[in-house]
Amino acid sequence: MAKTAAEYFENLRESRVWRSIFRSGTGTSTLHRSLAIQQNIFLHLFSTKVRRRMLNFSATWYLGTLTFGTFVILVVTGILLMLYYHPSVPQAYADTKDLQFVVSSGLFLRNLDRWSAHAMVLLVFAHMFKVFYRGAYRPPREFNWVIGVVLLLLTLLLSYTGYLLPWDQLAFWAITVGSNIASAVPLLGNKIHFLLLGGNLVNANALLRFYVLHCMILPLAAFFFIGIHFWRIRKDGGLYTQQSEPAAVRPQPVGKEAQ
Amino acid sequence: MTDPPSKDKKDFVTGVDSNARKSPRRVVFVTRRTSAQVKAVDEDQVQTFPEVLFRALVAIEVLSILLVWIALLFNAPLEGVADPSHTPNPAKAPWYFLGLQEMLHYFPPVVAGVLVPTLVIIALIVIPYFNINIEAEGLFLQDRQSRLRICYVVAVAMSLFLTYFHVYVALVPTLIVIAFMLLAAQSSPQSASPFRRYLAAQPLSYWIMTWFLFELVVLTVVGTFFRGPGWSWVWPWRN
Questions:
Q1: Where are the domains of chain B?
Q2: For the domain with range A59-235, which CATH number is right: 2.40.128.130, 1.20.1730.10, 1.20.810.10, 3.30.230.70?
Q3: Are the C-beta atoms of B74 and A115 separated by less than 8 Å?
């Protein structure tokens, strides 16, 4: 009798090589499913069990998950775009044009990166308001809320720094308008403006700075804080449930009281 | 812990948690003076692997398909090469900063560009550190008269301030939120309509955050669609 795909997969999971990679072992028992989370360096950030009612769409709208999804898309498309892009003036614009018209799927990659970036900003805001209206910032989750605010700022900065990279009129003037706000900071304004742009105007230095921020510093910072954000969900007792205080268990009457 | 009736002469309560599959048998013996409570979570749980991870993957998959469709159908904007000598009119920041840019139209940069964003970020960070936000009791359920008075004063002050600077765009959402606050003040948990019961239960933080969300959306939409050359008002459906 021919083996089914599931059986082949089971055999694969029981092979010596597979077992050497995934420490948790095979099996569908509760223990093995818990180990699959616990024994995995990435998944161990999450708790092994989740309250069933938190899986309802209405509980979270999956906004945090979806925000992470856009981040993954952005990392993948961003890395692929980096292969075709030089952060120099005016080569940056020519590269963007090439992505648009010459590179295979270049147009699609750039579109996906751009629209996913907008989606991420929207989703981060939506996630924040959803968490607020559910009251999920309550202790012991205060600090995870603060990390969330940091991630909101990182998301805005990631999007903002990416905005300059095509080096077209839209990019140039959006960054000029945005960075001029920094000059309004009392006392240090012009210094911050100069530090951000590497000059007094948006120029080749600014492009290089924004490129390094967009492709290196900010994504690493985002990875770092996302890791803490996920881990803190588990450490703070899982996803917030509306009636967070567990009801006192009514003791069963014992002995004579039972009658 | 159940409270025995006061006539009960015993000075303690007893109990037992007898779910042997989940935990060893626990016997509780609590004197009333210590008033300890046994708190336990007795909720239906599912394994993260595979159930939660599978759902998360499906959610991300659906989103990816949606974004791929958008990327196939709509091209990202690309204008001419950057030209510092040629300023477009209006020059707009990315859309999520257009609320800020709209405010820069009314207030000096140090207020609209620095003070307001800084205060917003600080306000967001401190939300979970105030007990009033943790308890989150309906704003008008206690001290109704004095709180209503403060509400009136704040409403009039903000309306005058926004009118003085001609910020009618921000005035409209403010007035709408205040109208709902006054409706909340006239409602109670005993109100007939569910909506008014809902309003009555909302705490101060809810009103501030809702006002902020409303302003954020309105200012961003106005900055994005209703502003033309020289930051003048335009109707997006004309031309």
A1: 95-231
A2: 1.20.810.10
A3: yes
